[in-house]
Design brief:
By secondary structure, the protein is of the alpha/beta class. It folds into two domains: 2-98, Enolase-like, domain 1 (2-Layer Sandwich); 117-333, TIM Barrel. 33% of the residues lie in helices and 22% in strands. It is built from ten helices and 13 strands. The strands form three sheets. It has a seven-stranded parallel β-sheet with strand order 5-6-7-8-9-10-11. Strands 1-2-3 form a three-stranded antiparallel β-sheet. A three-stranded antiparallel β-sheet has the order 4-13-12, covered by helices on one side. The protein is globular.
Length: 343
């Protein structure tokens, strides 16, 4: 088996605002495995400031992974706990290799183009007019679950934007999910959650920054809005996963395979969540269509009835052309469309 890697800088079509800052580009790398003239590709995707993968060691680690594979050394030597995105990329590349490079990692009625995956419509932070424009476009496109990034703008402006939605659509018509990306302060988070709750909010992701364990426990206990753990799961050791679920007691968790170390690690989170009656859904972590394809196919096998966070394939000017399409608020795989890997 031969392994190589290449980098790809993804260019956003707009300034993608979150409470952690504005994104205009996002680096990603493709891990390419070749064996018996078959090529498997996996994506190693990080988000600067969020992924735990050490940025300054990332290229060096990819070189090391390729060298270990090329030398035929045992994979136990890879040591990828601190590089979950590389673990995900390797897992995906091996699955693609097993599938003869077809990109059909988990064949199903989804990959046959017969069934779509319900997804939420993601609304990025920006000025009021920009956010309202996105909301109108999502609703007109048929989305009935809207996810808004909050926590960075003036809070009264965010309330006004949400109020505008609720003045036109009830909770039965439009489900509103919020994602604070840790943007609220612990001392006023509960007050903000109480003000948001009057708008029949489905849930809010990571209202405060991860790592504030006791404060998050208290918020989950007292919040009038169901709380979702997202960043809180990143970097947690396998032996500590159940402790996090059991003690914090969130309403939901979000699974991002690129940030959690791949499908097997994500499935372990699902098992523990269901054991403690915690619900979940899957969200992409701004991967290109290579990673999004792997995540979408895997997600379909889980048969969740909730809208998933997989509508990110249209974010970039220079994404990899793929069979993934969005229609009527669902993600589809169109087998009539071929992959195009010109980097």
């Amino acid at each position: 088996m031969k392994a190589t890697h290449i980098q790809h800088i993804l260019d956003f079509k707009f300034e993608a605002g979150t409470s952690r800052g504005v994104l205009t580009q996002k680096p990603t790398s493709y891990l390419i495995l070749e064996e018996n003239a078959v090529i498997g590709i996996g994506e190693c995707s990080t988000i600067p400031g969020l992924s735990i993968d050490p940025e300054e060691l990332y290229t060096e680690k990819l070189d090391e992974v390729c060298q270990i594979i090329n030398n035929g050394n045992p994979r136990e030597q890879l040591q990828l706990h601190d590089f979950p995105s590389i673990a995900f990329g390797l897992e995906s590349a091996l699955l693609d290799l097993k599938a003869n490079g077809s990109k059909l990692l988990f064949p199903s009625t989804f990959t046959e183009g017969q069934t779509g995956i319900p997804i939420n419509g993601l609304v990025w932070m920006g000025d009021k007019a920009f956010m309202q424009k996105q909301i109108r476009e999502k609703i007109e496109a048929g989305y009935r679950c809207i996810k808004l990034k909050v926590g960075a703008l003036d809070f009264d402006t965010e309330l006004a934007i949400i109020n505008q939605i609720r003045s036109e659509f009830s909770a039965n018509e439009i489900e509103i999910r919020l994602d604070a990306n840790g943007g609220f302060q612990p001392e006023n988070a509960l007050e903000k959650l109480s003000k948001l709750a009057v708008y029949d909010i489905h849930s809010i992701e990571q209202p405060i920054k991860q790592g504030q364990f006791e404060k998050m426990v208290q918020l989950c206990e007292l919040s009038p809005i169901p709380i979702v753990l997202d960043e809180e799961l990143i970097g947690i050791k396998s032996t500590d996963k159940e402790f996090v679920i059991e003690k914090i007691k969130p309403a939901y968790i979000i699974l991002k395979p690129s940030l959690l170390g791949g499908f097997k690690q994500s499935e372990e989170w699902i098992r523990l969540a269901e054991k403690h009656n915690v619900k979940w859904w899957v969200t992409s972590a701004l991967e290109s269509n290579i990673g999004l394809n792997a995540i979408a196919q895997w997600t379909f096998t889980l048969q969740s009835v909730l809208p998933q966070g997989l509508g990110t394939g249209q974010l970039y000017h220079n994404n990899i052309p793929s069979p993934l399409e969005i229609s009527e608020a669902k993600l589809y795989y169109n087998p009539e469309i071929k992959w195009d890997f010109r980097f």
